[in-house]
Amino acid sequence: MRSARRSAPQHPRQRCWHWKGEDRQGQRRSGVLLATGRPEAQRQLHQLGVIPRKLRQGGTLARFERQISPRDLTLFSRQLATLLTAGVPLLQAFHVLGESLSKPAMRLVVQALGMDVSAGASMAQALSRHPLTFDALYVNLVAAGEQSGTLDRMLERLAGHLEKRERLKARVRKALWYPSTVVAVGIAVSAILLIKVVPQFEQMFEGVGASLPPLTRLTIELSEFAQQWWLVLLGSAGVMAGAARWWVKRSARARFGAHGLALRLPVVGTILEQASVARFCRTLATAFAAGVPLVEALKTAAGACGNDVYCQAVSAVQSEVASGQRLHLAMRATRRFPTLALQMVAIGEEAGALDSMLTRVADHFEREVDDRVDTLTSLLEPLIIVVLGVVVGGLVLAMYLPIFQLGNVI
Known about the structure:
mainly alpha, 3 strands, 76% helix
């Protein structure tokens, strides 16, 4: 597959062009197209029956590819598989998709794929020129589908794989973002009370002249600190968060450390571990079932784990398997995979049904992630409500205690 991709025909550097104009009916139209220069862009618009009024260069295709989401890729795979199953030729299918897809970035990619295929490249070769959109698994499975004459079924399998992968990511994001969002809202409400509400009570208490309860004095001191330093604290938190994100993004060592720390978190760490194992097994099963060699399939699966710790572990597994080691023994040596996964992989290797066993392991751990996320959510909801109630209620109580005492004196 790699040698085929290296021998793919080359084409001139293509650029994106934004255009506005009128069609033959006089209606205003606009869009983006792919061309090597202004004359070719004008020729394409002429073929579309558009009289261009404005035509300007809009950068490279890679800039638009960053806007493509997994959902767009799933929709493209599903629609292309449907067209191929109906007997539509590949080039005509690209043309139909180019007109039906609503996202400009995806239309540009489809247009580029059509140009490459019409120039003599295979679909896998065309896909390999867009690594920002199509990863190694996608390219390898399409190449296997082209070689076996089952491209439509392979695209359906890819669409299903992408849907399951994104569903699993959504569950993990829910486990991470739900408590974080609620806690952030609680902190924001407490800050508003300390900065805006407590000072009003403080002015009223100064006029009374009576001694204040310890809880009220503590709350007023916190309010004074928040009023004086809230901007500095907010700015420092933003700078620290931005610096940490930049460091993790730029440094592989920092990213590895952050991912390792995340795996050691209580409850959430277990969810992340199971999600990484599920993604690894699902990707490996999909690639291996499509006829991709195990060593190359492991390389693809390493990048799909979503965690650098597991990515490093799978890379070690790949090296051991390449040297002749059995898969389940190489996985056991990393001490990163649960016993159930190791046993199922060992059975799959002995029975010659590795892909089906990996699929069962992925299904099992995806269900485990779903159950744990639901349990975490159901446990966190009352806990967070209690914590927020205590914090906000404590601030309110601290402000009303002097009023209650004054009422008792009267």
